[in-house]
Design goal:
Elements: H1 2-8, H2 14-17, H3 23-36, H4 38-47, E1 49-54, E2 57-62, E3 68-70, E4 72-74, H5 75-84, E5 96-100, E6 106-111, H6 117-124, E7 127-128, H7 131-137, H8 143-158, E8 169-171, E9 178-180, E10 186-187, E11 192-200, E12 204-209, E13 221-224, H9 231-243, E14 248-258, E15 264-272, E16 289-294, H10 295-303, H11 324-337
The chain binds 1,4-dihydronicotinamide adenine dinucleotide (NAI) and magnesium ion.
GO molecular function, one term: hydrolase activity
EC number: 3.6.1.22
InterPro entries: NADH_PPase-like_N (IPR015375), NudC-like_C (IPR049734), NUDIX_hydrolase-like_dom_sf (IPR015797), NUDIX_hydrolase_CS (IPR020084), NUDIX_hydrolase_dom (IPR000086), Znr_NADH_PPase (IPR015376)
């Protein structure tokens, strides 16, 4: 492991200090070092693994048990693909650092949108699949990494110019920042904070749906935080706006990065309303519908394994397992059953 680390950081002396660190600590320190040190990051790219995208769609491979995983190629394999398709080898340098594997191998992502999609798919034995669909197909732990990769690639594709001077911005080797070539202003990737809350009246939970959701799907209420708001203020405002309710007893559950529509930082909470104040007044400009659901209805939806067949009347359908909304709904159902 140390030998590998030394190669990755081109012999920098700090690698010896990692000898006493846990695997997790050494990985975090390696990623932090690679963000700051262009030469070390360029060296790590030569031995790293790469997640490929085509116009922000990740490359997935079907594995023998019928499930999907993101295709991860060694950088030498990506170079061979580029060569075979007649692309510039320097395209590899556009790779963006996304993390570090448990084997201390640096992980990158690269968008090959300028190459012919079908040709890359054939050479790599995979398919580029829209992230919304890929999110339902990926059951392993890689889904958050793929989401992070897409978010970073999108940020680079849309932040090529300084919003103060209009001049081009240049990225560092890892892609952790961009700097305006004229003013020196430094830009970092951004996320929008979103509060998401499962409201309960003690016996039932409140779920809503937007018209853009798949038929039958309901989720916890969510909304973007306004500038200057606390998490609690944003939560109370969103529930008041969308459902006409006043909540109390807010408790934090967990967070997640969510790549849609761009890059949101979801802050998941539970909250309560008094049963005598549970009369809904739904804002239909924001939500197509919002309703109270019983434990029985929610438990049945949690047991569903596959989407409802086309044409069948849709039962209650919940967001995918790795969405924080799913986690909030499951937590509520477990507490009710206790
Ligand atoms: N991971 C999960 O479990 C879930 C994630 N979500 C995500 O939460 C996000 C927010 O939920 P909504 O009910 O749509 O929010 P919302 O209730 O705040 O309404 C969306 C509107 O807010 C405005 N807005 C304010 N700041 C914005 C910003 N930074 N970016 C975009 N729009 C902004 C826009 O006018 C937009 O149409 C959604 O984009 C959705 O993808 C929603 C439910 C479940
Ligand atoms: Mg909303």
């Amino acid at each position: 492991m140390l030998k590998q680390l030394r190669i990755l950081v081109s012999g920098r002396t700090w690698s010896s200090s990692l000898r006493h660190c846990s695997g997790f600590v050494s990985r975090m320190r390696l990623v932090n070092q690679l963000k700051q040190d262009d030469a070390a990051c360029a060296a790590a790219l030569q031995t790293g693994s790469i997640f490929l995208f085509h116009r922000l769609n990740p490359l997935l491979q079907r594995i023998p048990n019928g499930t999907f995983r993101p295709a991860t190629l060694h950088s030498t394999e990506v170079q061979a693909v580029l060569q075979r398709l007649g692309a510039e080898g320097s395209l590899l340098q556009d790779s963006v650092l996304i993390g570090c594997s448990e084997q201390n191998q640096a992980q990158f992502c690269l968008d090959v949108g300028q190459l012919d999609q079908a040709a890359v798919e054939e050479v790599c034995d995979g398919k580029f699949i829209a992230l919304r669909k890929a999110f339902f197909l990926l059951t392993g732990a890689e889904a958050p990494l793929v989401a992070k990769a897409q978010a970073l690639l999108r940020w680079h594709q849309t932040n090529g110019f300084c919003s103060a001077t209009g001049q081009p911005t240049q990225r560092n080797q890892s892609g952790s920042q961009r700097v305006c070539s004229s003013s020196g202003i430094v830009y970092y990737p951004t996320m929008s904070p979103v509060v998401i809350v499962l409201v309960s009246d003690g016996k039932r939970c409140l779920l809503g749906r937007q018209s853009s959701f798949p038929k039958g799907m309901y989720s916890a209420l969510a909304g973007f935080c306004d500038m200057g708001e606390t998490l609690e203020e944003a939560l109370c405002r969103e529930v008041a706006e969308e459902a006409g309710l006043q909540v109390h007893s807010i408790s934090y559950s967990g967070s997640q990065h969510w790549p849609f529509p761009h890059s949101s930082f979801m802050l998941g909470c539970h909250a309560a309303v008094r049963p005598e104040h549970s009369q809904l007044s739904v804002d239909h400009s924001e939500l197509e519908d919002a309703r109270w659901f019983s434990l029985q209805e929610v438990s049945a939806a949690l047991r569903l394994q596959a989407p409802p067949p086309r044409g069948a009347p849709p039962p209650l359908w919940l967001p995918p397992k790795h969405a924080v909304a799913h986690r909030l709904i499951r937590e509520w159902a477990e507490r009710q059953s206790d």
